[in-house]
Fold this sequence. Notes:
This protein is of the alpha+beta class. The protein is built from twelve helices and 15 strands. The protein has helices spanning 7-19, 141-148, 157-164, 179-189, 195-227, 232-248, 255-262, 266-277, 281-299, 304-310, 316-327, 331-343; strands at residues 3-6, 22-23, 40-44, 50-58, 64-72, 76-79, 84-85, 89-96, 99-100, 106-107, 111-115, 118-119, 123-126, 132-139, 175-176. The longest helix is centred in the middle third of the chain and has 33 residues, at 195-227. The chain is globular and about 55 Å long. The mean pLDDT is 84.
Amino acid sequence: xxxxxxxxxxxxxxxxxxxxxxxxxxxxxxxxxxxxxxxxxxxxxxxxxxxxxxxxxxxxxxxxxxxxxxxxxxxxxxxxxxxxxxxxxxxxxxxxxxxxxxxxxxxxxxxxxxxxxxxxxxxxxxxxxxxxxxxxxxxxxxxxxxxxxxxxxxxxxxxxxxxxxxxxxxxxxxxxxxxxxxxxxxxxxxxxxxxxxxxxxxxxxxxxxxxxxxxxxxxxxxxxxxxxxxxxxxxxxxxxxxxxxxxxxxxxxxxxxxxxxxxxxxxxxxxxxxxxxxxxxxxxxxxxxxxxxxxxxxxxxxxxxxxxxxxxxxxxxxxxxxxxxxxxxxxxxxxxxxxxxxxx
Length: 344
């Protein structure tokens, strides 16, 4: 049975938890010789709705990070009564969870988006079967504008609207997290440093993510004229191909078979898929496999060999090599480190 909360009660639960938050790293408390470092605290998920935590980190540049690692006991529905006006932009990198978006579409694992300064009143649902692992970057629009300087006019129209606080665009498009983004996100989640070095590390990785996001948005602007060459019917068939791959990523059809299933020739499918989704058919399958592998490893119920088989790899070594290319570490290391951090 789903848990229903008003937006007020949802916020009140987390506000109470944040008031009782503790330093994430005992070294930040100081030792008499070194001063205490503030701005890195863990708020435990309210026991009434789940387990895990949110970790809030404030960096010297004004960037604020929130690291989400929690799991709900049941599906959770949060209802918002009216629109919210915030004073920041929020980049949301969703590594593991499935929840409904404010326009009733779903945000899937491996997607990211930007929330603007005016959020609509609506309702969202978080599915309990998928643990929440995400990194949010909060940044004041004026600070972001100062970062990009006189290059503002070169930004995509969507980015310009978000920075300007356009109320007609509460959220950016949902996009796929790229392998480069994945590596930076894992380096944030698994930061091995302490003190000032930790701050510098998190600062640099946050800026790297913002740069990668800008690069991705800019590339789409450059690709858009090419997409116009695809007619509406071809676009529908390309999206149908993606749906098939979503359902069969563990045992996908060949490119030729997939093209026949959606009524395209393989050249049009290959070219159009990359134009529309920014990756190849093979790259999309690999990403879906790795996303599912992360979920299974995080749950901790399966061995690495079993996870490899579940996502479509008959050979553990090939699975481990693909996992290292995407996340920069072995699946077993990921399972041990992330499982430990998730349990706090």
